[in-house]
Specification:
2 copies of one chain form a homodimer. The first copy, chain A, is an alpha/beta fold. Chain A is 43% helix and 14% strand. The first copy, chain A, has 3 domains: 64 residues, Orthogonal Bundle (Arc Repressor Mutant, subunit A), CATH 1.10.10; 131 residues, Aspartate Aminotransferase, domain 1 (Alpha-Beta Complex), CATH 3.90.1150; 240 residues, Aspartate Aminotransferase, domain 2, CATH 3.40.640.
């Protein structure tokens, strides 16, 4: 093929590619010459030349008075370069690229998912949910499709409000907006209370998506030290609030990602009171709240909010229905703004998964499922912590979170955890290196490990391998 | 209740509200005193006082050694003021508020939906889709949940690529990203090619959501005149491109909303060529492309794109599965950026609706459904146009779109279409007044009417009513 192909060569190459990739299959009729002229803006002569070229190459055949068809006995597909989709890593901070690669790696079932952000999908009642979805969809009245715009399905919101009420948190009737997972809820809440250029306080270390989202919304992050046991440092936070005009705090007071930190109740109250004095909204990411190892659900900061300043975000993705992308925001006095932003950014949340979950919740098995899930995660945490003690360098420090499914490891200070991550990936094991969790690459010898995959037989060997690699690096 | 209630009064009021609203139901056990202390950050004495107050009011009862329960024979619910969720209309342009109200009105099945943006839900194979969804969910392997992150389900993307290929448009393998409806696709594409403050060209009149989205992303809109028959004025567009640094064009070359304009093929080619000369990306909103009244699908501008500058956005919401919120972007050279932005804003699109549609497409009934849908919409357009001729003022001008399900009416110049809209709403009929479709309230005597509700027996009377009100206004 010439460097500058003619129009007909280009057309023939495009069709050939579609055939090679199986998009056009043996026996498929090609668009007519007239249609192709219209669609590609070329002359009939060009199309005839292109089709002639494809015939010569044996890819298509002409059938008299009928048109052109993909050759039944076409050659075996070859590996060919794809039309390039350029990468643009250079324009983004390294955290984004690394996080993106990490997410990509979780798509590969052959990789042991110690770096994944999700628990094992086998822990969830996927079949029961599917039955609930089928039942709910059979009963769907067409008008429900528009009535669920924009805030979400009424039954689902009613069930959620009931769960809040049983925790002693009464929500206003229109306070809940169902979102495309907690990620969208957090994005909408941030946009509701900030303008580009504003300062937002986050934890350090923090969930890497927070760094990406702030970057995307052109917000300035101030990281506040966060303790693996007690959560964000309130004195440090008070200092920031005194010094800077803070537009919002985005925190995870319950089972913080990556630390697993659980703020004691009194500190949550102090946090809410401190922010109320400054009139600063708190965006509370509570996606792990149901995954407690103790006997009862820790109250969210939202429970202590009497000013409508807490925007509480959560989802079913980590505790019931991964992949359903059903989350929500209970956004206090900002609820209407969040609903507007939802309309402008994705109009509404998909109805079938909402109906499936609403039906499932009414069947009454949710709390039983949660009990089993909590037990499985707590046991697995214990098990993996023992494995780490056995296989990792002696000076490794490990968190003991009271919920969630992450362990945060502080390796000996001379460990390069990013290099460790790359070596583990080469061995088919993903990890989440500490540099992911701060904009200024602070956690160089830290790792977050996912302990949410009980029953995955590859875990033991993977922990051993990562531990040995960590030991060898010193 | 005092103006500043004490802590226990506040707690009691909150619980009372939850009971009145049915969130706590007769016989439900209230959280224990200890739990409530923890959750609300109050002393046991406060909780006892609050529960005592609720007992006095007859709302709850104490059961010895068991706790407090919602009274079985509680008083009938009263209408009470809700905790206020403040409105913030004043901070937004009027178009947003009006659009929001209009969307809200479509939630009410009692309102005749002439202002709706959606066709009648009965036109869609909702039950067949539900069966497809149930089948696909039964077959779901847990690992599919993570493999569909972030770009979407592989089978669905493969089917979509095949449909593009059959139109003579070969897509790169990773070019498609499945989104939460076309609305999210458009948002992500805009963000991929613009920075706050940039100029974006839109049509005039334009889809009101475009105005909202640009406002949200702090982009500056330049409106270019658009002809009801031929689409955007290319000379005017060339003038803008010569004068201004334009970051992107956001256009609907096929069955434009609200005009229904279809750009002739040659003009689409000219458009793509013009933008390529200026290196300006085209965000092509093609959600109505399948709804043609003619014999074949008009090619999108994407068909003429050899530079990867056309970001083609569409969805199944208007032609197959309203409420499923399954859309996509084929974003050319910006595909990877769009995928990144998708990860940061909502991580991934819900899996069950994707699987349902993917299964449905493989069953082979889609094109048959589309043929029936097109026929129904074309017939209904004819029918309603006749009704308008009969019942509207004689100087009313009406478009004759070659697809989609909107009519654009230009009423006599002294008509106040916004007042007409409000009077129609008072009669239980929604319309979409022209001022919605421009930032500078240009279309004061225009209306967009939805003709996508064949079989709705209220349509005839509604058209007549709106026509009579329009006549009376002159």
């Amino acid at each position: 093929m010439a460097e500058h192909p003619t129009r007909y060569e280009q057309l023939a190459d495009d069709m050939a590619q579609a055939i090679r990739e199986g998009l056009l299959r043996p026996g498929d009729r090609l668009p007519s010459v007239r249609e192709t002229c219209l669609r590609r803006g070329v002359s009939p002569a060009t199309v005839f030349q292109a089709y002639g070229l494809l015939e010569t190459r044996g890819l298509i055949e002409a059938r008299p008075r009928s048109g052109f068809y993909v050759q039944a006995a076409r050659r075996a597909p070859r590996a060919v370069p794809q039309a390039a989709v350029p990468k643009t890593e250079a324009t983004e901070v390294a955290v984004s690229a690394l996080a993106f690669d990490l997410l990509e790696s979780t798509r590969d079932p052959a990789v042991v998912p110690l770096g994944s952000a999700f628990p094992g999908a086998h822990l969830f009642p996927i079949e029961v949910l599917a039955r609930s979805g089928a039942r709910a969809m059979r009963r769907l009245k067409p008008q429900q499709i528009t009535s669920a715009l924009t805030a979400g399905d009424d039954k689902l919101r009613q069930s959620l409000r009931r769960r809040y009420a049983l925790q002693g948190i009464p929500l206003a009737a229109d306070e809940l907006v169902i979102t495309n997972g907690a990620m969208e809820a957090l994005n909408l809440c941030l946009q509701a209370v900030t303008q580009p250029g504003d300062v937002v306080v986050i934890e350090s270390p923090t969930f890497y998506a927070a760094l990406q989202v702030l970057e995307r919304l052109k917000l300035r992050a101030v990281e506040v030290a966060t303790d693996p046991a007690e959560g964000v440092d309130l004195d440090a936070l008070a200092g920031v609030l005194a010094r800077e005009r803070v537009a919002a705090c985005w925190l995870m007071p319950t089972f913080q990602n990556p630390l697993g930190a659980l703020m004691p109740v009194a500190r949550k109250q102090d946090l809410v009171a401190l922010l109320a004095r400054h009139g600063v909204p708190l965006i509370e990411d509570d996606v792990y709240g149901e995954l407690y190892a103790d006997v009862r659900r820790p109250p969210p900061a939202k429970a202590f909010d009497s000013d409508g300043l807490v925007l509480h975000c959560s989802s079913f993705s980590k505790c019931l229905a991964p992949g359903y992308r059903v989350g929500w925001a209970a956004a206090g006095r900002f609820a209407r703004d969040v609903q507007r932003l939802k309309m402008m950014s994705s109009l509404a949340t998909s109805i079938p998964p909402q109906l499936a979950i609403a039906d499932y919740l009414l069947q009454g098995g949710y709390d039983r499922h949660l009990r089993r899930l909590r037990e499985a995660l707590a046991e697995e945490q214990l098990r993996v912590r023992r494995l780490i003690e056995r296989h990792f360098p002696v000076r490794t420090r490990v968190t003991r979170p009271a919920g969630g499914y992450f362990l945060w490891l502080e390796l000996p200070p001379d460990t390069d955890a990013l290099a460790l991550h790359h070596r583990a990936m080469a061995a088919g094991i993903s990890t989440a290196p500490g540099v992911l969790f701060s904009a200024d690459r602070r956690f160089t010898h830290h790792l977050r490990l996912n302990v949410g995959h009980p029953g995955d037989e590859r875990i033991d060997a993977a922990i051993r391998t990562v531990g040995e690699v960590a030991g060898a690096r010193r």
